[in-house]
Amino acid sequence: MRLKDPTLLRTQCFVNGEWIGSGAIAVTNPANGEEIARVPNFGAEETRQAIEHAQAAFGPWAARTGKERAKILRRWFDLIIENKDDIAMIMTSEQGKPLAEAAGEVDYAASFVEFFAEEAKRIYGDVIPSHRADARIVVVKQPAGVVAAITPWNFPAAMITRKVGPALAAGCTVVCKPAGETPLTALALAELGARAGIPAGVLNIVTGKASAIGSEMTSNPLVKVLTFTGSTAIGKILIEQCAKTVKRVGMELGGNAPFIVFDDADLDKAVQGAIASKFRNAGQTCVCANRIYVQSGVYDIFAERLASEVLKMKVGDGTEVGVVQGPLINAAAVEKVEEHVQNAVALGAEVVVGGKRHARGGNFYEPTVLKNVTTRMLITREETFGPVAPLYRFETEEEVIRLANDTEFGLAAYFYSRDVGRCWRVAEALEYGIVGINEGLISTEVAPFGGVKESGLGREGSHYGIDEFVEIKYMLMGGL
Ligand code: ADP
Protein backbone atom coordinates (compact mmCIF):
# COMPACT_ATOMS: atom_id res chain seq x y z
CA MET A 1 0.00 0.00 0.00
CA ARG A 2 1.51 3.33 -1.04
CA LEU A 3 0.70 6.28 1.22
CA LYS A 4 1.72 9.93 1.04
CA ASP A 5 2.29 9.78 4.77
CA PRO A 6 3.37 6.23 5.69
CA THR A 7 3.33 7.12 9.39
CA LEU A 8 -0.48 6.91 9.24
CA LEU A 9 -0.22 3.14 8.98
CA ARG A 10 -0.21 2.38 12.70
CA THR A 11 -0.14 -1.23 13.85
CA GLN A 12 -0.09 -0.84 17.63
CA CYS A 13 -2.88 -0.01 20.04
CA PHE A 14 -3.28 3.60 21.16
CA VAL A 15 -3.66 3.95 24.92
CA ASN A 16 -3.09 7.03 27.05
CA GLY A 17 -1.40 8.81 24.16
CA GLU A 18 1.09 6.00 23.52
CA TRP A 19 1.42 3.33 20.87
CA ILE A 20 1.69 0.02 22.68
CA GLY A 21 1.56 -3.74 22.08
CA SER A 22 2.93 -5.74 19.22
CA GLY A 23 1.49 -7.41 16.19
CA ALA A 24 -0.30 -10.70 16.65
CA ILE A 25 -3.53 -10.71 14.64
CA ALA A 26 -3.29 -10.51 10.87
CA VAL A 27 -5.26 -7.91 8.94
CA THR A 28 -5.84 -9.07 5.37
CA ASN A 29 -6.90 -7.49 2.12
CA PRO A 30 -10.26 -9.04 1.13
CA ALA A 31 -9.51 -8.43 -2.57
CA ASN A 32 -6.51 -10.75 -2.65
CA GLY A 33 -6.12 -12.39 0.77
CA GLU A 34 -2.73 -10.77 1.37
CA GLU A 35 -1.68 -9.86 4.87
CA ILE A 36 -1.38 -6.08 5.26
CA ALA A 37 -0.28 -5.82 8.88
CA ARG A 38 -0.56 -7.37 12.32
CA VAL A 39 -2.18 -5.68 15.29
CA PRO A 40 -2.00 -6.52 19.01
CA ASN A 41 -4.18 -9.16 20.59
CA PHE A 42 -5.35 -7.30 23.68
CA GLY A 43 -7.63 -8.93 26.22
CA ALA A 44 -9.47 -7.99 29.39
CA GLU A 45 -6.42 -6.80 31.35
CA GLU A 46 -5.18 -4.35 28.71
CA THR A 47 -8.74 -3.13 28.20
CA ARG A 48 -9.10 -2.50 31.93
CA GLN A 49 -5.94 -0.40 31.87
CA ALA A 50 -7.22 1.60 28.91
CA ILE A 51 -10.50 2.22 30.76
CA GLU A 52 -8.56 3.43 33.81
CA HIS A 53 -6.56 5.84 31.66
CA ALA A 54 -9.80 7.08 30.11
CA GLN A 55 -11.21 7.59 33.61
CA ALA A 56 -8.12 9.57 34.67
CA ALA A 57 -8.43 11.75 31.58
CA PHE A 58 -12.15 12.29 32.05
CA GLY A 59 -12.10 15.00 34.75
CA PRO A 60 -9.72 17.40 32.99
CA TRP A 61 -11.38 16.84 29.59
CA ALA A 62 -14.87 17.41 30.99
CA ALA A 63 -13.63 20.54 32.77
CA ARG A 64 -12.59 22.21 29.53
CA THR A 65 -15.08 24.55 27.96
CA GLY A 66 -17.12 23.35 25.03
CA LYS A 67 -15.27 25.85 22.89
CA GLU A 68 -11.87 24.38 23.79
CA ARG A 69 -13.05 20.88 22.94
CA ALA A 70 -14.60 22.23 19.75
CA LYS A 71 -11.28 23.69 18.60
CA ILE A 72 -9.49 20.38 18.99
CA LEU A 73 -12.27 18.47 17.21
CA ARG A 74 -12.22 21.01 14.40
CA ARG A 75 -8.46 20.48 13.98
CA TRP A 76 -9.09 16.73 13.88
CA PHE A 77 -11.69 17.28 11.15
CA ASP A 78 -9.21 19.35 9.12
CA LEU A 79 -6.51 16.69 9.43
CA ILE A 80 -8.90 13.90 8.39
CA ILE A 81 -9.83 15.86 5.26
CA GLU A 82 -6.17 16.71 4.51
CA ASN A 83 -5.28 13.03 4.74
CA LYS A 84 -8.35 11.75 2.93
CA ASP A 85 -6.47 9.90 0.19
CA ASP A 86 -4.29 7.98 2.63
CA ILE A 87 -7.18 7.02 4.89
CA ALA A 88 -9.19 5.92 1.86
CA MET A 89 -6.27 3.78 0.68
CA ILE A 90 -5.92 2.15 4.11
CA MET A 91 -9.67 1.55 4.17
CA THR A 92 -9.86 0.02 0.70
CA SER A 93 -6.92 -2.23 1.52
CA GLU A 94 -8.49 -3.71 4.62
CA GLN A 95 -12.19 -3.43 3.76
CA GLY A 96 -12.39 -3.76 -0.03
CA LYS A 97 -14.74 -0.91 -0.99
CA PRO A 98 -13.75 1.03 -4.14
CA LEU A 99 -11.38 3.93 -3.50
CA ALA A 100 -13.91 6.58 -4.52
CA GLU A 101 -16.43 5.11 -2.10
CA ALA A 102 -13.77 4.97 0.62
CA ALA A 103 -12.96 8.64 0.03
CA GLY A 104 -16.69 9.36 0.26
CA GLU A 105 -16.78 7.57 3.59
CA VAL A 106 -13.86 9.65 4.86
CA ASP A 107 -15.85 12.80 4.02
CA TYR A 108 -18.89 11.31 5.77
CA ALA A 109 -16.78 10.28 8.78
CA ALA A 110 -15.18 13.72 9.00
CA SER A 111 -18.60 15.38 8.81
CA PHE A 112 -19.49 13.94 12.25
CA VAL A 113 -16.34 15.41 13.76
CA GLU A 114 -17.12 18.79 12.20
CA PHE A 115 -20.79 18.69 13.20
CA PHE A 116 -20.11 17.71 16.81
CA ALA A 117 -17.26 20.21 17.09
CA GLU A 118 -19.93 22.83 16.42
CA GLU A 119 -22.40 21.10 18.72
CA ALA A 120 -19.89 21.04 21.63
CA LYS A 121 -20.68 24.72 22.20
CA ARG A 122 -24.44 24.17 22.25
CA ILE A 123 -25.13 21.50 24.83
CA TYR A 124 -27.77 23.66 26.42
CA GLY A 125 -29.62 23.05 29.65
CA ASP A 126 -33.02 24.35 30.62
CA VAL A 127 -34.79 26.56 33.13
CA ILE A 128 -38.21 25.18 34.03
CA PRO A 129 -40.92 27.39 35.57
CA SER A 130 -40.99 26.39 39.20
CA HIS A 131 -43.81 24.67 41.09
CA ARG A 132 -43.06 26.89 44.10
CA ALA A 133 -42.68 30.63 44.51
CA ASP A 134 -39.55 30.26 46.68
CA ALA A 135 -37.69 27.87 44.37
CA ARG A 136 -36.18 27.69 40.90
CA ILE A 137 -35.61 24.67 38.68
CA VAL A 138 -32.47 24.44 36.57
CA VAL A 139 -31.51 21.54 34.31
CA VAL A 140 -27.91 21.01 33.18
CA LYS A 141 -26.36 18.39 30.93
CA GLN A 142 -23.13 16.83 32.12
CA PRO A 143 -20.84 14.37 30.33
CA ALA A 144 -21.73 10.79 31.25
CA GLY A 145 -18.16 9.58 31.83
CA VAL A 146 -16.05 6.91 30.16
CA VAL A 147 -17.62 5.58 26.96
CA ALA A 148 -16.83 2.16 25.50
CA ALA A 149 -17.41 1.86 21.75
CA ILE A 150 -17.49 -1.30 19.64
CA THR A 151 -17.66 -0.78 15.90
CA PRO A 152 -18.11 -2.90 12.74
CA TRP A 153 -16.07 -3.36 9.57
CA ASN A 154 -18.52 -2.06 6.96
CA PHE A 155 -17.83 1.62 7.73
CA PRO A 156 -14.37 1.51 9.30
CA ALA A 157 -14.13 5.30 9.74
CA ALA A 158 -17.67 6.67 9.97
CA MET A 159 -18.90 4.27 12.66
CA ILE A 160 -16.04 5.48 14.85
CA THR A 161 -16.50 9.22 14.35
CA ARG A 162 -20.30 8.98 14.67
CA LYS A 163 -19.70 7.77 18.24
CA VAL A 164 -16.40 9.41 19.18
CA GLY A 165 -17.38 12.83 17.75
CA PRO A 166 -20.38 13.40 20.04
CA ALA A 167 -18.76 11.63 23.01
CA LEU A 168 -15.70 13.89 22.94
CA ALA A 169 -17.81 16.96 22.23
CA ALA A 170 -19.90 16.23 25.32
CA GLY A 171 -16.78 15.89 27.48
CA CYS A 172 -16.65 12.10 27.68
CA THR A 173 -13.53 10.01 27.10
CA VAL A 174 -13.56 6.88 24.97
CA VAL A 175 -12.11 3.39 24.71
CA CYS A 176 -12.91 2.02 21.26
CA LYS A 177 -12.62 -1.48 19.88
CA PRO A 178 -12.78 -1.44 16.08
CA ALA A 179 -13.72 -4.57 14.13
CA GLY A 180 -10.93 -7.12 13.78
CA GLU A 181 -11.21 -6.89 10.00
CA THR A 182 -10.62 -3.12 9.87
CA PRO A 183 -8.50 -1.81 12.77
CA LEU A 184 -6.03 0.15 10.61
CA THR A 185 -8.47 2.89 9.61
CA ALA A 186 -9.34 3.38 13.29
CA LEU A 187 -5.68 3.58 14.28
CA ALA A 188 -4.97 6.12 11.51
CA LEU A 189 -7.84 8.25 12.82
CA ALA A 190 -6.38 8.05 16.34
CA GLU A 191 -2.98 9.18 15.03
CA LEU A 192 -4.63 12.22 13.44
CA GLY A 193 -6.55 12.83 16.65
CA ALA A 194 -3.30 12.93 18.61
CA ARG A 195 -1.83 15.37 16.07
CA ALA A 196 -4.93 17.52 16.47
CA GLY A 197 -4.27 17.80 20.19
CA ILE A 198 -6.73 15.33 21.70
CA PRO A 199 -5.10 14.86 25.13
CA ALA A 200 -3.62 11.53 26.24
CA GLY A 201 -6.24 9.11 27.53
CA VAL A 202 -9.20 10.90 25.96
CA LEU A 203 -9.36 8.60 22.93
CA ASN A 204 -8.00 5.07 23.22
CA ILE A 205 -8.11 2.28 20.65
CA VAL A 206 -7.70 -1.38 21.56
CA THR A 207 -7.58 -4.34 19.19
CA GLY A 208 -7.81 -8.01 20.05
CA LYS A 209 -10.20 -10.68 21.22
CA ALA A 210 -13.69 -9.23 20.83
CA SER A 211 -15.41 -11.25 23.57
CA ALA A 212 -12.66 -10.57 26.17
CA ILE A 213 -12.54 -6.85 25.41
CA GLY A 214 -16.33 -6.71 25.28
CA SER A 215 -16.71 -8.48 28.65
CA GLU A 216 -14.38 -6.00 30.33
CA MET A 217 -16.10 -3.03 28.72
CA THR A 218 -19.54 -4.21 29.78
CA SER A 219 -18.62 -5.22 33.34
CA ASN A 220 -16.21 -2.44 34.36
CA PRO A 221 -18.08 0.00 36.61
CA LEU A 222 -16.00 2.93 35.34
CA VAL A 223 -17.66 2.59 31.93
CA LYS A 224 -20.90 4.57 31.92
CA VAL A 225 -22.04 4.16 28.31
CA LEU A 226 -21.62 1.30 25.87
CA THR A 227 -22.19 2.28 22.27
CA PHE A 228 -22.27 -0.53 19.72
CA THR A 229 -22.82 -0.92 16.01
CA GLY A 230 -23.02 -4.46 14.70
CA SER A 231 -25.25 -7.49 14.52
CA THR A 232 -28.45 -7.86 16.51
CA ALA A 233 -27.15 -11.16 17.93
CA ILE A 234 -24.05 -9.56 19.49
CA GLY A 235 -26.03 -6.45 20.48
CA LYS A 236 -28.37 -8.60 22.57
CA ILE A 237 -25.43 -10.22 24.36
CA LEU A 238 -23.93 -6.82 25.14
CA ILE A 239 -27.23 -5.41 26.44
CA GLU A 240 -27.51 -8.39 28.76
CA GLN A 241 -23.94 -7.96 29.97
CA CYS A 242 -24.51 -4.24 30.59
CA ALA A 243 -27.53 -4.96 32.77
CA LYS A 244 -25.32 -5.99 35.70
CA THR A 245 -23.90 -2.48 36.12
CA VAL A 246 -26.93 -0.69 34.59
CA LYS A 247 -24.96 0.98 31.83
CA ARG A 248 -26.57 3.15 29.31
CA VAL A 249 -26.49 1.45 25.90
CA GLY A 250 -26.64 2.82 22.39
CA MET A 251 -27.33 0.10 19.83
CA GLU A 252 -27.22 0.33 16.04
CA LEU A 253 -28.10 -3.20 15.00
CA GLY A 254 -29.18 -5.11 11.92
CA GLY A 255 -31.80 -4.13 9.39
CA ASN A 256 -33.95 -5.78 6.74
CA ALA A 257 -34.87 -2.74 4.68
CA PRO A 258 -37.91 -2.83 2.40
CA PHE A 259 -37.69 -0.77 -0.80
CA ILE A 260 -41.14 -0.22 -2.30
CA VAL A 261 -41.89 0.94 -5.84
CA PHE A 262 -45.52 1.93 -6.47
CA ASP A 263 -47.11 2.02 -9.93
CA ASP A 264 -47.10 5.83 -9.83
CA ALA A 265 -43.36 6.12 -9.06
CA ASP A 266 -40.84 7.99 -11.17
CA LEU A 267 -39.21 4.80 -12.43
CA ASP A 268 -35.87 6.34 -13.42
CA LYS A 269 -35.46 7.76 -9.94
CA ALA A 270 -36.59 4.48 -8.38
CA VAL A 271 -34.01 2.51 -10.38
CA GLN A 272 -31.28 4.98 -9.42
CA GLY A 273 -32.36 4.85 -5.78
CA ALA A 274 -32.44 1.05 -5.77
CA ILE A 275 -28.91 0.87 -7.20
CA ALA A 276 -27.61 3.35 -4.63
CA SER A 277 -29.39 1.76 -1.71
CA LYS A 278 -28.80 -1.86 -2.68
CA PHE A 279 -25.31 -1.99 -4.11
CA ARG A 280 -23.40 0.59 -2.08
CA ASN A 281 -20.53 -1.11 -0.26
CA ALA A 282 -21.42 -4.31 -2.20
CA GLY A 283 -24.69 -4.49 -0.28
CA GLN A 284 -22.91 -4.58 3.07
CA THR A 285 -24.69 -1.83 4.99
CA CYS A 286 -27.44 -2.16 7.56
CA VAL A 287 -29.60 0.28 5.56
CA CYS A 288 -29.19 -1.50 2.21
CA ALA A 289 -32.46 -2.43 0.52
CA ASN A 290 -32.91 -6.09 1.36
CA ARG A 291 -36.41 -6.67 -0.04
CA ILE A 292 -37.55 -4.79 -3.13
CA TYR A 293 -41.35 -4.75 -3.49
CA VAL A 294 -42.61 -3.62 -6.89
CA GLN A 295 -46.29 -3.06 -7.71
CA SER A 296 -47.52 -5.38 -10.44
CA GLY A 297 -48.19 -2.64 -13.04
CA VAL A 298 -44.49 -1.70 -13.23
CA TYR A 299 -42.89 -4.95 -12.07
CA ASP A 300 -41.50 -6.16 -15.41
CA ILE A 301 -40.33 -2.81 -16.66
CA PHE A 302 -38.66 -2.01 -13.33
CA ALA A 303 -36.89 -5.39 -13.34
CA GLU A 304 -35.68 -4.80 -16.88
CA ARG A 305 -34.34 -1.32 -16.18
CA LEU A 306 -32.70 -2.32 -12.92
CA ALA A 307 -31.05 -5.30 -14.58
CA SER A 308 -29.67 -3.19 -17.42
CA GLU A 309 -28.07 -0.80 -14.88
CA VAL A 310 -26.68 -3.67 -12.83
CA LEU A 311 -25.09 -5.18 -15.94
CA LYS A 312 -22.96 -2.03 -16.28
CA MET A 313 -21.43 -2.37 -12.82
CA LYS A 314 -17.72 -3.12 -12.87
CA VAL A 315 -16.51 -5.53 -10.21
CA GLY A 316 -12.90 -5.71 -9.08
CA ASP A 317 -10.17 -4.68 -6.66
CA GLY A 318 -11.26 -1.36 -5.16
CA THR A 319 -8.01 0.29 -6.23
CA GLU A 320 -8.67 -0.39 -9.95
CA VAL A 321 -10.04 2.44 -12.05
CA GLY A 322 -13.77 2.32 -12.75
CA VAL A 323 -14.60 -0.38 -10.21
CA VAL A 324 -17.90 0.23 -8.45
CA GLN A 325 -18.15 -3.03 -6.53
CA GLY A 326 -15.28 -4.53 -4.57
CA PRO A 327 -15.01 -7.90 -2.86
CA LEU A 328 -17.19 -8.94 0.04
CA ILE A 329 -15.47 -8.79 3.41
CA ASN A 330 -14.63 -12.50 3.70
CA ALA A 331 -15.42 -16.05 2.58
CA ALA A 332 -18.27 -16.45 5.08
CA ALA A 333 -20.00 -13.39 3.60
CA VAL A 334 -19.81 -14.90 0.11
CA GLU A 335 -21.18 -18.20 1.42
CA LYS A 336 -24.18 -16.45 2.99
CA VAL A 337 -24.99 -14.66 -0.27
CA GLU A 338 -24.60 -17.90 -2.19
CA GLU A 339 -26.92 -19.71 0.24
CA HIS A 340 -29.60 -17.01 -0.07
CA VAL A 341 -29.51 -17.05 -3.86
CA GLN A 342 -29.51 -20.86 -4.11
CA ASN A 343 -32.39 -21.10 -1.68
CA ALA A 344 -34.40 -18.52 -3.64
CA VAL A 345 -33.74 -20.25 -6.96
CA ALA A 346 -34.66 -23.64 -5.51
CA LEU A 347 -37.98 -22.15 -4.39
CA GLY A 348 -38.78 -20.67 -7.81
CA ALA A 349 -36.94 -17.35 -8.16
CA GLU A 350 -35.53 -16.40 -11.55
CA VAL A 351 -32.00 -15.01 -11.94
CA VAL A 352 -32.17 -11.93 -14.18
CA VAL A 353 -28.51 -10.93 -13.82
CA GLY A 354 -25.61 -12.45 -11.86
CA GLY A 355 -26.57 -15.18 -9.43
CA LYS A 356 -23.13 -16.65 -8.90
CA ARG A 357 -19.60 -16.04 -7.67
CA HIS A 358 -17.64 -13.70 -9.88
CA ALA A 359 -15.10 -15.14 -12.33
CA ARG A 360 -12.33 -13.37 -10.37
CA GLY A 361 -12.83 -15.90 -7.57
CA GLY A 362 -11.93 -15.11 -3.97
CA ASN A 363 -14.47 -12.94 -2.20
CA PHE A 364 -16.05 -11.51 -5.35
CA TYR A 365 -19.73 -12.08 -6.11
CA GLU A 366 -21.63 -10.87 -9.16
CA PRO A 367 -24.14 -8.06 -8.66
CA THR A 368 -27.43 -9.92 -8.87
CA VAL A 369 -31.09 -9.28 -9.63
CA LEU A 370 -33.69 -11.95 -8.81
CA LYS A 371 -37.31 -11.95 -10.02
CA ASN A 372 -40.37 -13.76 -8.70
CA VAL A 373 -39.07 -13.79 -5.16
CA THR A 374 -41.61 -14.81 -2.53
CA THR A 375 -41.82 -14.42 1.22
CA ARG A 376 -41.13 -18.13 1.77
CA MET A 377 -37.49 -17.61 0.82
CA LEU A 378 -34.61 -17.17 3.28
CA ILE A 379 -33.75 -13.81 1.78
CA THR A 380 -37.03 -12.40 3.14
CA ARG A 381 -36.23 -13.14 6.77
CA GLU A 382 -32.47 -12.55 6.95
CA GLU A 383 -30.28 -9.64 6.05
CA THR A 384 -28.30 -10.84 3.00
CA PHE A 385 -25.52 -8.24 3.40
CA GLY A 386 -24.46 -8.73 -0.19
CA PRO A 387 -25.08 -7.52 -3.76
CA VAL A 388 -28.42 -9.26 -4.35
CA ALA A 389 -31.60 -7.40 -5.33
CA PRO A 390 -34.65 -9.65 -4.80
CA LEU A 391 -37.81 -8.38 -6.52
CA TYR A 392 -41.21 -9.22 -4.97
CA ARG A 393 -44.50 -8.46 -6.71
CA PHE A 394 -47.38 -6.81 -4.81
CA GLU A 395 -50.86 -5.51 -5.65
CA THR A 396 -52.10 -3.03 -3.01
CA GLU A 397 -50.80 -0.40 -0.62
CA GLU A 398 -52.23 -2.22 2.43
CA GLU A 399 -50.60 -5.48 1.35
CA VAL A 400 -47.15 -3.96 0.91
CA ILE A 401 -47.26 -2.10 4.23
CA ARG A 402 -48.06 -5.37 5.95
CA LEU A 403 -45.24 -7.17 4.11
CA ALA A 404 -42.76 -4.38 4.77
CA ASN A 405 -43.48 -4.37 8.51
CA ASP A 406 -43.46 -8.17 8.80
CA THR A 407 -39.97 -8.39 10.29
CA GLU A 408 -38.41 -8.02 13.72
CA PHE A 409 -36.16 -5.30 12.28
CA GLY A 410 -36.96 -1.60 11.90
CA LEU A 411 -33.99 0.44 10.74
CA ALA A 412 -34.46 1.93 7.25
CA ALA A 413 -37.28 1.70 4.69
CA TYR A 414 -37.66 3.33 1.29
CA PHE A 415 -40.52 3.92 -1.09
CA TYR A 416 -41.23 5.65 -4.38
CA SER A 417 -44.55 7.28 -5.20
CA ARG A 418 -45.70 10.60 -6.62
CA ASP A 419 -49.03 10.66 -4.83
CA VAL A 420 -48.72 13.04 -1.91
CA GLY A 421 -51.46 11.38 0.13
CA ARG A 422 -49.86 8.00 -0.28
CA CYS A 423 -46.48 9.44 0.67
CA TRP A 424 -47.80 10.55 4.06
CA ARG A 425 -49.85 7.40 4.67
CA VAL A 426 -47.05 5.00 3.86
CA ALA A 427 -44.30 6.99 5.60
CA GLU A 428 -46.33 7.06 8.81
CA ALA A 429 -47.34 3.40 8.61
CA LEU A 430 -43.83 2.03 8.14
CA GLU A 431 -42.42 0.79 11.47
CA TYR A 432 -38.91 2.06 10.85
CA GLY A 433 -36.59 4.64 12.39
CA ILE A 434 -35.63 6.03 8.98
CA VAL A 435 -37.81 6.39 5.88
CA GLY A 436 -36.44 7.44 2.48
CA ILE A 437 -39.28 8.86 0.34
CA ASN A 438 -38.29 9.00 -3.32
CA GLU A 439 -34.69 8.75 -2.15
CA GLY A 440 -32.30 5.82 -1.72
CA LEU A 441 -29.51 7.48 0.26
CA ILE A 442 -30.51 8.69 3.71
CA SER A 443 -27.26 8.96 5.69
CA THR A 444 -26.12 12.43 6.75
CA GLU A 445 -24.54 13.80 9.90
CA VAL A 446 -27.35 16.31 10.36
CA ALA A 447 -30.18 13.75 10.71
CA PRO A 448 -30.85 11.16 13.44
CA PHE A 449 -29.83 7.65 12.41
CA GLY A 450 -31.25 4.68 14.30
CA GLY A 451 -33.80 1.92 14.39
CA VAL A 452 -36.86 0.64 16.21
CA LYS A 453 -37.76 -2.95 17.19
CA GLU A 454 -34.70 -5.22 17.17
CA SER A 455 -32.71 -2.76 15.06
CA GLY A 456 -31.58 -0.83 18.07
CA LEU A 457 -31.82 1.78 20.77
CA GLY A 458 -30.98 5.47 20.52
CA ARG A 459 -30.01 7.74 17.66
CA GLU A 460 -26.66 8.80 16.24
CA GLY A 461 -25.83 11.98 14.37
CA SER A 462 -27.74 15.29 14.50
CA HIS A 463 -28.35 17.23 17.73
CA TYR A 464 -30.03 14.08 19.11
CA GLY A 465 -26.69 12.28 18.83
CA ILE A 466 -25.33 14.05 21.91
CA ASP A 467 -28.09 12.67 24.14
CA GLU A 468 -26.42 9.27 24.56
CA PHE A 469 -23.36 10.89 26.12
CA VAL A 470 -24.83 13.34 28.61
CA GLU A 471 -26.64 12.95 31.88
CA ILE A 472 -29.44 15.32 32.74
CA LYS A 473 -29.14 16.85 36.19
CA TYR A 474 -32.04 18.71 37.75
CA MET A 475 -31.15 21.23 40.44
CA LEU A 476 -33.83 22.65 42.71
CA MET A 477 -32.71 25.99 44.15
CA GLY A 478 -34.89 26.40 47.21
CA GLY A 479 -35.25 28.86 50.09
CA LEU A 480 -35.23 31.98 47.94
P1 ADP B 1 -20.60 -8.66 11.85
O1 ADP B 1 -21.28 -9.97 11.77
O2 ADP B 1 -21.10 -7.66 10.89
O3 ADP B 1 -19.09 -8.74 11.90
P2 ADP B 1 -20.63 -8.38 14.71
O4 ADP B 1 -21.77 -7.99 15.56
O5 ADP B 1 -20.12 -9.78 14.82
O6 ADP B 1 -21.07 -8.03 13.24
O7 ADP B 1 -19.40 -7.41 14.93
C1 ADP B 1 -19.50 -6.06 15.24
C2 ADP B 1 -18.46 -5.70 16.28
O8 ADP B 1 -18.71 -6.46 17.46
C3 ADP B 1 -17.03 -6.03 15.87
O9 ADP B 1 -16.16 -5.02 16.39
C4 ADP B 1 -16.79 -7.35 16.57
O10 ADP B 1 -15.43 -7.61 16.80
C5 ADP B 1 -17.53 -7.12 17.85
N1 ADP B 1 -17.90 -8.35 18.59
C6 ADP B 1 -18.17 -9.58 18.10
N2 ADP B 1 -18.46 -10.44 19.09
C7 ADP B 1 -18.38 -9.74 20.25
C8 ADP B 1 -18.57 -10.06 21.64
N3 ADP B 1 -18.92 -11.27 22.04
N4 ADP B 1 -18.39 -9.07 22.55
C9 ADP B 1 -18.05 -7.84 22.14
N5 ADP B 1 -17.85 -7.47 20.88
C10 ADP B 1 -18.02 -8.41 19.94
Automatic annotation (TrEMBL):
<feature type="domain" description="Aldehyde dehydrogenase">
    <location>
        <begin position="23"/>
        <end position="474"/>
    </location>
</feature>
<dbReference type="InterPro" id="IPR016163">
    <property type="entry name" value="Ald_DH_C"/>
</dbReference>
<dbReference type="InterPro" id="IPR016160">
    <property type="entry name" value="Ald_DH_CS_CYS"/>
</dbReference>
<dbReference type="InterPro" id="IPR016162">
    <property type="entry name" value="Ald_DH_N"/>
</dbReference>
<dbReference type="InterPro" id="IPR050740">
    <property type="entry name" value="Aldehyde_DH_Superfamily"/>
</dbReference>
<dbReference type="Pfam" id="PF00171">
    <property type="entry name" value="Aldedh"/>
</dbReference>
<feature type="active site">
    <location>
        <position position="252"/>
    </location>
</feature>
<dbReference type="GO" id="GO:0009450">
    <property type="term" value="P:gamma-aminobutyric acid catabolic process"/>
</dbReference>
<keyword id="KW-0560">Oxidoreductase</keyword>
<dbReference type="InterPro" id="IPR016161">
    <property type="entry name" value="Ald_DH/histidinol_DH"/>
</dbReference>
<dbReference type="GO" id="GO:0004777">
    <property type="term" value="F:succinate-semialdehyde dehydrogenase (NAD+) activity"/>
</dbReference>
<dbReference type="InterPro" id="IPR010102">
    <property type="entry name" value="Succ_semiAld_DH"/>
</dbReference>
<dbReference type="InterPro" id="IPR029510">
    <property type="entry name" value="Ald_DH_CS_GLU"/>
</dbReference>
<protein>
    <submittedName>
        <fullName>Succinate semialdehyde dehydrogenase</fullName>
    </submittedName>
</protein>
<dbReference type="InterPro" id="IPR015590">
    <property type="entry name" value="Aldehyde_DH_dom"/>
</dbReference>
<comment type="similarity">
    <text>Belongs to the aldehyde dehydrogenase family.</text>
</comment>
<dbReference type="GO" id="GO:0005829">
    <property type="term" value="C:cytosol"/>
</dbReference>
